[in-house]
Structures are given as structure tokens and as C-alpha cells.
Amino acid sequence: MHDQAETLRRIVQHKADDKSLSESDTSGKRARVITITSGKGGVGKTNVTINLALALSQMGLKVVILDVDFGLANIDVLFGIVPKYSILDVIRDEKSINDVLTDGPNNIKFLSGGSGVEELIRLDRKQLREFVAHISQLDKLFDVILIDTGAGLSQNVMSFIMAADEVILVTTPEPTSITDAYALVKMVSRRDRRKRMHIIVNKAESIKEAEEISKKLMVVSEKFLSLRLLKLGYILYDDTVTKSVKMQKPFSLYNPKCQAAKNISDIADKLFSNPTPDGNTGAKGFISKLLSFFGA
Ligand SMILES: Nc1ncnc2c1ncn2[C@@H]1O[C@H](COP(=O)(O)OP(=O)(O)OP(=O)(O)O)[C@@H](O)[C@H]1O
Ligand SMILES: [Mg+2]
Questions:
Q1: Which residues line ligand 1 (CB under 6 A)?
Q2: Which among 110-124, 203-217, 275-289 has the top mean pLDDT?
Q3: Which of 182, 202, 256, 291 is the most buried (most CB within 10 A)?
Q4: How many CB atoms lie within 10 A of CB 173?
Q5: Counting atoms of ligand 1 from 1, which one is nearest the CA of 260?
């Protein structure tokens, strides 16, 4: 277990080879920043985020979840935990990043975004610099940052997609979910054709169905948008998920042997079987890009 954790940590730690980003960052450690999103709502993003976080934590990685679904606070509802602070407390009261993190199960932490983005635009340069410094601390504290968004296609969500080093796009086999996922890939492809986008098919009836859908999306995205999607895996439809949601408990803790938990564990393995992508910019790069998108 310890050896595996060490190996994984080495995989995610990226050498400081991108001088343009952080002259002052001497440690060179950068977290892997992954935005989880979808075209259509209700496809399972929040369940994927939480249970993927738990699976990665099980592998020995330090994980934090950033909840930026401004409409509904998703993560805390599914954890059954009410956080005391949000990112706004870093902005307004200059609390440290450590102070505003909430403890989730199994050593994972989470941070609520609140309506932080609107506040950010109002900050002056000095406050912004301080805010970036606070967020950049996450690179030292964590190996992985998972960002749970609302359903895609809004300006806000697009910004979180474009600012992250990697994206996990969740779809279900429903035709509307697939077409909305494709619409989202199209929007991303207009901005960056080389975006590292993984796809997960959730609530699939069978492996065959999941495989067909991911293949279809991959083929059309490559052919018409010149964007190569990466197949991350699938989660079969599983009643345990619905039950666990009602109990406000992550399905992988509610029943670690359930089908969905097995699928998410395979997804975690696949995600970290590859080294951190080249040009990974970590939390610092993420927040810098995000602020530039919001014109802050
Ligand atoms: N693999 C699955 N099998 C069965 N039900 C599932 C599965 N995944 C998700 N669900 C159901 O779908 C519902 C929506 O899931 P979730 O809240 O994770 O979606 P979401 O994409 O985060 O939604 P939103 O867009 O509202 O944030 C859950 O309440 C759960 O009952
Ligand atoms: Mg959600």
C-alpha cells in the first residue's frame, strides 16, 4: 500500500519545467486538476466526483473536492455534512485555505465554491494576488483536485473546464445526454482541440451499451471536431447508487462491493495508470487561468 502510494505520488508530481507559470514556486509539486462536467444535468457528476475521490484516496493520494455548482450545494448534501466555510471566507476574511477546508470521509477534504466567482471580479490587484497565493497552496497540500460543476454549456462552467488541466465528461446512454455531451465537446474544441478530455458513460445497462456510446462519441468528436476523447470507463446502472443518495452516503462506502463501486475503482486505476499530462499547471495555473477568463 505504502509503495503504491509513493509511486502514485511520484506520478502526479510534475517537475517544475514551465518557468512562465511560477517563478517563485520552487517546490515544483503540482496537483492534478480535473473538472468533472456534463452537457445535461443529473447524469451522475456529483456521485462520480465523490466516489472517485474516495477511490483515489484509497490508493494513497491526497484528494480535495472543489464544489463549484453554484445553483445547488451538491457535495455537502451527498456527504450529509454541512460545511462551515466556503471559498468566500478566503476572499473576504483572509482565512487560510486550510481553515476553509471541510473534512469528508476517509481523509478527503472538500471546499465549497459558494458564489465566489462574482466576488472575485470585485477584488483589487493586491487582493487577487493574495487569493492566487492561497489557492496555490493546494498544490502543496494535495495530489488531486476534483472540481464538481453544474451541467455544462454556461459561461461559468466552460471557464472551469478550460482552466483545468483535464476534464472528465459524464454522459448517460440517453440520446439527449449524448447530444448535449457532444455539444459540450464542440464548444471545448473551438477553444482548445488538444484539451485532455476523458469520458465516462454512467447508468449504462450493459458494458456493450457503454462501449458503443463511448466509441460513438469518440469517433464523431475526432472526425468532426478534431478532438480526441479518452475513454475512461463506465458505471453500470446500480440501485445501490439511488439508495446511497437517499442515505446521504457515498455508494462506495454504503456498499463497497456494489457494481458501481467496482466500476469507479477501475476508473480510478485507469486515470492514474497514465502519468500526469505534459504541461500540467496545477492549482496555481488553474486559478490564474480562471481569473483571466472572468476578467478579474
Ligand atoms: N450508476 C447509477 N445507477 C443508478 N442511479 C444513478 C447512477 N448514477 C447516478 N444515479 C442517480 O442519478 C441521480 C443524479 O446523480 P448526481 O446528483 O450525481 O448527478 P449530477 O450530474 O451531479 O446532477 P446535477 O447536474 O443536478 O448536479 C442520483 O440521485 C442517483 O440516484
Ligand atoms: Mg451535481
A1: 38, 41-47, 69, 74, 150-151, 202-203, 235, 237-238, 241-242, 245, 260
A2: 203-217
A3: 202
A4: 18
A5: 1
